[in-house]
Amino acid sequence: MCGIIGSSNLETFGYLFDQNKERGNFAYGTARVNLSSKISIKKSDDFSKKPRFSSDTIVYLAHLQSPTSSKREFENNTTHPFRHGNKVLAHNGVLENFEKLKEENPELNVNEVDSSIILPLIEKYGLVEALEKLQGTFGCWMYDQETSELFLFRSGSTIYSDGINFSSKQPDDRWVLLKEGVIYRFNYTHVRYDEYKTFQTSSGFFI
C-alpha cells in the first residue's frame, strides 16, 4: 500500500504528505511543476527531512512508497515517480498482469517494479487503451510535460479529492472518492479536476 498526493498549495501539500506517511514510509518521490510547465523530481528514503520546493512551483506532487516483495532497498530507478519521454507518473496499487504484459510487449523498457510498465504502455497504445490493458489495482497521477496536462485515474486504488487537491488517504468526510474508470484532467484556470475521458476497469477492491 502506497500513497499519492497533489496540491497547488505548499501548506496543504505538507499536510497531505504527513497524512499519507502511514501508507508509505519506505521511500518517497516528489515532483514540482513550475511556471514554465517543467517538472522536477526528487527521491529519498529520509523522512526526517521535509521536501523543499522553489518559489516558482505551481503544482506539488508526491508518491509515498511501501516496500514491495521484490524491492527492500532504496534505489532511485525503482522509486516513484517514473519518467518516460515527456511523461511522469506515480502509481499506488498492484498490477496482477505485469509479467504477462512484459511477455506481450518485449520491446518495452521496464524494470522489476510493475509500475514501470504503465508509461511505456501509454506511449505504445494511447492512454485509454493502455489503462484498459491493466489488471489489478491502480491509482495514478500523470503529468505530460509536452502538453502541460496533469491527469488522475484509478481502478481499485483510492484517490480522494476536495476538488482542488487529491490524496490516497481521505483527510475528512468532505473529500470524495473519485470515480473509477474516469480520467480526470486538472483545469489550471478554474483550479479543479474535470472529467476528461472514460475507460473500462477490471478491479473490484480498494488499496
Describe, in plain words, how this protein is organized in 3D.
With 207 residues, this protein is an alpha+beta fold. It has helices at residues 10-19, 98-104, 118-125, 127-133; strands at residues 3-7, 27-34, 39-44, 57-65, 82-84, 87-92, 138-144, 149-155, 160-161, 166-167, 176-177, 182-187, 192-198. The strands form 2 sheets. It has a 7-stranded antiparallel β-sheet with strand order 3-2-4-1-10-9-11, with helices on one face. Strands 5-6-7-8-12-13 form a 6-stranded antiparallel β-sheet, covered by helices on one side. A hairpin with a 2-residue loop joins strand 5 and strand 6 (87-92). Helix 3 (118-125) packs across helix 4. The radius of gyration is 16 Å and the shape is globular. The model has no long low-confidence stretch (mean pLDDT 93).
Helix content: 10-25%
Q: Summarize the main sheet.
A: 7 strands, antiparallel
- What is the N-to-C order of secondary-structure elements (H for helix, E for strand)? EHEEEEEHHHEEEEEEE
Which secondary-structure class do the elements indicate? alpha+beta
Rg estimate, integer Å: 16 Å
End-to-end C-alpha gap: 6 Å
Overall strand count: 13
Write out key terms for the chains shown.
single chain, 207 residues, alpha+beta, six-stranded antiparallel β-sheet, 15% helix
Helix/strand layout:
Layout: E1 3-7, H1 10-19, E2 27-34, E3 39-44, E4 57-65, E5 82-84, E6 87-92, H2 98-104, H3 118-125, H4 127-133, E7 138-144, E8 149-155, E9 160-161, E10 166-167, E11 176-177, E12 182-187, E13 192-198
Antiparallel strand pairs: 1-4, 1-10, 2-3, 2-4, 5-6, 6-7, 7-8, 8-12, 9-10, 9-11, 12-13
Helix pairs in contact: 3-4
